[in-house]
Amino acid sequence: MTSPSHTDLREELAALAETQPFSPDPSAWDLGRRARSRTRVVRAAATLAVVALVVGVGAIAVRPDSVGPAGGIEPDGAIPSVITTPDGPVITDLAIGRASVAYVDSDGSPVLVDAATGKASYVDLPSFPEPSVIERTADLVTGPLLAVSPDGRRVAYAATVAAEGPAGQPAFSTPWYIVLDLTTGDFEFVGVPLGTGTPRAISWTTDGRLAIDVYGRQTRRDQPPSVVARTIDVTTGDSAASALTGMLAPGGLISATYPVDDGPVQAVPFEIAEGDVAGRDLPTDLYPEGAEVAPVGWAADDLLVAHVDEDLVVLTSPDRPAAESTWQVLVPDLPESSGVTVAVDLIPDLTGDPDQELTHDFTATPMGDSSGGRALYVAGGAVVLMAGVVLMLRRVRT
Amino acid sequence: MTDRSGFDAFVRARGPALARTAYLLTGDHHLAEDLVQAALVQAAKHWERIDTSPEAYVRRTMYHQNISWWRGRKLAETSLESYDAPVPATDPTIRLTLEQALRRLTPRQRTVLVLRYFEDLTEVQTAAELGISSGAVKSMSRDALRRLRTLAPELADLVGADT
């Protein structure tokens, strides 16, 4: 392969760039300075919050027994309260233990969030589709491309590759699925069920099978084929037809269906066993014009985690009485992605307390640290800090 | 010179160049405007604390912001014919083909190409700007060129040909 001609390519790029007629104006200054003022106010509030946190941690130190981080959240890991974009090297040793979150970023690169540290990293997954393949399949895919298992110990994805269509046009095909064990870094190939192709979406059932949505057989030329669902036993490779498309709830009697387009909806869509559809209305005060909704996983029999606009939300399914309905933001402001999944086992059972912590702030306290000894130091520091403030106030008065 | 007047002078002097780079990064004239303005707002916000040159800061902000603007980009990439006023060129066919092929690269591939072949940065410098390894830059650059060749074989003379 030869190298490109730098000069020629640069000249063509420069000529192309010259077609940009826009010249920015300095009005950005006013916007930037206003944003700066707002940031300062927020920082002041954050400083107060940190002082409150220090005092709170001090209070933890005097408790006889430490409970798990974030008030008893899963001790081996947790969903982070903030899901960041990766900023370190690509991880090639995939035996990371447990992942709390998996997503494919806007460039088509797979990202895992370590359940024990909350750190997001790019991962070098074997046979993961190239970004160009992901782009090529964008019109087909409706759900997650990378699915983390409920316990966070495995991830699964379709090993889709580029192919050539009958008339030479760009196409793609999926020869198998890959299930990767994050505790060992080993992976296994799982065959594609007979008669199926590249999946539109892939997820895990709560009992450890893969649930896929695929196109069924085309019966009319003027209409696209219908979407059918199958489950795959990842140990044996056996597959079975599923009555419901989408993300299956425990027990398989209801599913949360994937969006058919990118537009906003007024209700979270579900499919129930009888073949009917149902919806859980979005809170109109929060989403007066609807929202884009995609299912992420089932935290309990009747508790769905969904991606609603920019947030991860926990909500009750429509088969629950309205009086028992819940709508709680789990993680706000997700990074841009083409589908996110979470290890739903890491979400604690809801107690009904609106202040219950469902996620862990890894920037405040590292997961797995014993709060006792360290918190004693922090509490001591807080006392010194407060004493310093008192001294300063006295000096000011005199 | 006050902060404000310094900022104004910077925008007047370097704004058009920033806009040109933004267009190559985004492949869309309107997105390019948004990208430059967003980066300038960031620069204004942190003006006192910019310890490199303001242009380096704004450019780096643009590179990273561009990569994270996927949804808007995805929409823009579907409207390949949205702009129809290219400047006269020695070979307008090649230029139009290049323009359309660039839009079909991923944002990261396009950013790497722009940094390497428009900004003339080395692999190491590109890696530093994007916060990735030199190996990743090399790999993305190779993939991007290969993709351009696949999308538009007539660009072979420009981007190198498979032998």
From TrEMBL, chain A:
Keywords, comma-separated and alphabetical: Membrane, Transmembrane, Transmembrane helix
Superkingdom of the source?
Bacteria
Q: What are the transmembrane regions?
A: 41-62, 375-393
Q: What is this protein called?
A: WD40 repeat domain-containing protein
**Species name:** Nocardioides zhouii
Q: What is the lineage of its organism?
A: Bacteria, Bacillati, Actinomycetota, Actinomycetes, Propionibacteriales
TrEMBL record, chain B:
Ordered alphabetically, the record's keywords are: DNA-binding, Sigma factor, Transcription, Transcription regulation
RNA polymerase sigma-70 region domain: from which residue to which, for each copy?
A: 11-74, 101-149
A GO BP annotation: DNA-templated transcription initiation
Name the Gene3D superfamilies on file: 1.10.1740.10, Winged helix-like DNA-binding domain superfamily/Winged helix DNA-binding domain
Mind telling me what this protein is named?
A: SigE family RNA polymerase sigma factor
Family per UniProt? Answer: Belongs to the sigma-70 factor family. ECF subfamily.
Which Pfam families has this protein been placed in? Sigma70_r2, Sigma70_r4
Q: Name one GO molecular function term.
A: DNA binding
